[in-house]
Amino acid sequence: MQTALNYVRAVLYWAPRWLIEIVILALAAGVGLLLVRWVFRLLERLARHFGSFATTLVHRSAGPVGVAWMVIVVGSALSSAGLPQATTLVIGHLLLVTFVLAVGWGALNALALAADVYLQRFHMDTPDNLLARTHVTQVRILRRASQTLIAVVTASAALMTIPGVREYGISLFASAGAAGLVVGLSARPLLSNLIAGVQLAITQPIRLEDAVVVEGEWGWIETISSTYVVVRIWDLRRLVLPLTYFIENPFQNWTKQTADLLGSVHLHVDYTVPIEELRAKLTEIVKCTPLWDGKVVVLHVVDALPTSIQLRALVSARNSGEAWDLRCYVREKMIEFLQQSHPQALPRQRVDLERQLPADPVARPRA
User: At what angle do helices 85-119 and 52-79 cross, to 10 degrees?
Assistant: First the structure.
């Protein structure tokens, strides 16, 4: 290294000394990056023989390792560059900050790699994906919370290398005055959402693709980020709510325990309807559609009104979407059956007409 630096100085003997030293540092950084790039190209070729995990590991390690190696190479060249002390201290401090950021970058990549490897065992595209949704939700929420924590710690560590910032930070945390209260209040939304995210990951009142009813809207949990939750409503609108909403407010989760659901169909019919025939027809209808999961099909008389009776059909489906389609299908076919086979059983209004004679007949007029 020293021989190469002396050779560069001999070639650029005519240039100002500061320019020579800057060129030397730039060459050192370039050599470091080229060396790292060559090494990682070789590692990527070797990793292809060991599967996708090794390839991903090498690919995500290239950036942080390359930056760290460049910092080491430039730092080694800086000690023999002969720059003024003030300039050397500034460049050295920049290298230190860059190294801290590279370590944080590497930690984020390691976290993402670990999460991806863990989630490879679970698939969201299966019909019964309750276990997969549980683990995917936990890992994604904890991953985002950890990413936020790593970013805050990395930025804090980089800023604490500056003497002025470090002294201000120490005095700020040591004091209990108004400045500390202001900082605490300003950080409250971030901390509350961070804590709410950890609570959601542990207790899991909601998971990805859960069917929920929130604020009077029915839909599915589409995204759970570090600060908010996106609910995909049935008509493709999106309802965006903070994480703390699902900790502090009641809501309906239709797929909390299992993905399968019971769907209900209510019909108002006349008192003359043949109940047993309708039960048999309901069973025949659900057996003709793949939307039914083969578990539950019942028909009950749930109410008797002055002008009609109310029937409730219960049918089961594998998930909320199929349950909705099955309810609509059963309702349509039952009405069609009543119209064709028993039109008299449809709701009717009865009026009883009675002939009422006057109490005293009208007397004939006298002649």
Answer: 170
Count of beta carbons in the 10 Å neighbourhood of residue 324: 17
Sign of CA dihedral 41, 47, 51, 57: negative
Predicted TM-score of the model (pTM): 0.55
pLDDT-derived band at 180, boundaries 50, 70, 90: very low
Instruction: Find the mean pLDDT for residues 329-333.
Output: 94
Domains of the chain in sequence order: 2-120 (1.10.287), 160-257 (2.30.30.60), 261-345 (3.30.70.100)
Tokens of 331: 């309702």
For the stretch 44-71, what's the b/e string if a residue is b when 16 or more beta carbons lie within 10 angstroms of its beta carbon?
A: eeebeeeeeeebbbbebbbebbbbbbbb
Q: How many angstroms separate the CA atoms of 332 and 326, rounded? A: 10
* Cα distance between residue 67 and residue 106, in whole Å: 10
| Distances from the Cα of 322 to the Cα of 32, 153, 188, 261, angstroms | 59, 46, 42, 9
| pLDDT, tens digit, 9 for 90 and up, residues 303-322 | 998 889 999 999 999 887 88
Question: 3-class DSSP state for residue 99?
Answer: helix
Q: CB–CB of 230/240 below 8 Å? A: yes
